[in-house]
Protein: ABC transporter ATP-binding protein
Amino acid sequence: MQVPAQQDYRSRAIAVEARGVSVEYDLSREKSTLIALEDFNLEVREGEFLAIVGPSGCGKSTFLNVVAGLVEPAAGEIKVYGKPVTGPEPDRAVVFQDYALMPWRTVEKNVRFGLEMQGRVDSTTKDKVAHYIKMVGLSGFENSYPRELSGGMRQRVGLARALVTEPRLLLMDEPFAAVDAMTREIMQEELTKIVATTGQPIIFITHGVDEAVTLADRIAVVTNRPGRIKEIIEVDLPRPRSRASRQLPEFQALRERVWQLLSSEHPERSEAEMAVSAAAGHHATDAGSGGGI
Ligand SMILES: Nc1ncnc2c1ncn2[C@@H]1O[C@H](COP(=O)(O)OP(=O)(O)OP(=O)(O)O)[C@@H](O)[C@H]1O
Structure:
């Protein structure tokens, strides 16, 4: 299978542009300010799958929230499709790690909520909801409640709820961190296929190095807080990428490169320690625990 939407992203227009973005949080109890991001610069092109990795607390979610229009930067500029971000807009959809579903609503009504929130319910809604429920593989579960679903199925609902709004940009914050290893593998494969159809660019935060190399066109490695771009790595591996691709020397070289960059952001952990922890399963469990970094 080819993945046309992702292949030629380099020649495409810029979808997201962050220039000199800094974010400060007011810590009123401590009477101080926490600088989460500082001079953060990044471009994402149409059709691109960009993964962001970095140490815990380095500001990855903060950056996603800035793009979503949920957090206002203290300095710098952020544009989505050339328009400065001033708040949330229907052209961006966010998928969270914890699914953020409404337990009292069925699958169908949770997905429909994506359109309700934007005041876009009309005669096409029923068909659209059915289309995206089918796309994420949940046909037959329209009337189920979240409590009746597995973690992977709940995340599919979260994805369908984002996709149903047909956003121009998809923001995903560790979406597969809470699901088991096998489900995570399946979800990664399915996400690749889905975005090949829907085509919008994705900013995808993950703690999984293998996940980043498997999914992304480019990986942005972020420094310790205050987060800045440390390096951007092009993942020039053929698609589709599968579990077997992880055996390729090129895959392994990219994985090692990302780990090296990350380990240098963990001065208290020597590279040897990182290597041991990786050999002990971080690379492999990347798929399972959502951990690894
Ligand atoms: N609303 C807030 N108020 C105060 N501090 C915050 C707020 N949100 C985030 N922070 C702080 O900003 C820093 C960056 O947080 P953020 O959640 O963006 O990091 P992250 O890289 O996504 O972390 P993780 O990988 O652990 O999810 C952290 O130190 C966090 O405690």
Summary: The chain has nine helices and ten strands. Confidence is low (pLDDT under 50) at residues 1-6, 280-285, 287-291.
